[in-house]
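As a warm-up, study this chain.
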Amino acid sequence: METHTQKFKFRLGLFVLGGFTLFVLAVFIIGKQKQLFNPVFRLTSTFNNVSGLQIGNNVRFSGITVGTVDNIQIINDSSVRVNMIVKKDVWQFIKSDCTVKIGSEGIIGDRLIIITQGGSDAPLAKDGQQLASSEPLETDAIMSSLQVTAKNAEVISLQLAEIMVKVNKGKGTLGRLIQDETIAENLNQTIVNLKTSSKGLDENMKAAKHNFLFKGYFDKKAKAAKEKKEAKINAEKEGK
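Now compare it with the structure written out below.
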């Protein structure tokens, strides 16, 4: 006599199959993260502060993801060692003088390791070699700087608003100049007077040219200008 129905056996089979699928998927994901299916080599570096870096975060070189963070270990009260696993097919580009720094995916994204390019004449990095590091800029410091900038911009905006209100009310030199019609008319009259004075000066100069006392002076000046022009023309002809 069967103790289990066909329906129960079918459900049990689905459960086993689902569990096996999840197991294979987990192995694949973990293996891909740990680069278990690709040949790799290891690098290491030390920092004073890893700024939220976690195991499994990406390692990038020239903007391309080439590995992952394998382990983070505190050495002492001022040093933290970061171990990285990197794809072996990029080994030929990783030089011994490359430096390592901690960046992020965007402004507030996950932390990652960035390997900078080394010199063309430098030897290749060895497996397990420790690369020099540069300390990351803290996000808190950036946000604090942005807050100061925003406060300064707010103060400047308020001051500009106050100035515009005073100008619109006719206060201050600029406000009176814009709002006071008398000042505007006086300014226009001043410009008209300047134009009139300039016109009168031109007429006086023309009269002086025809006056026998100044005629010789202006004739000599015109003659000198003519001779200079002729000399320039002759020089250009000789040059040709």
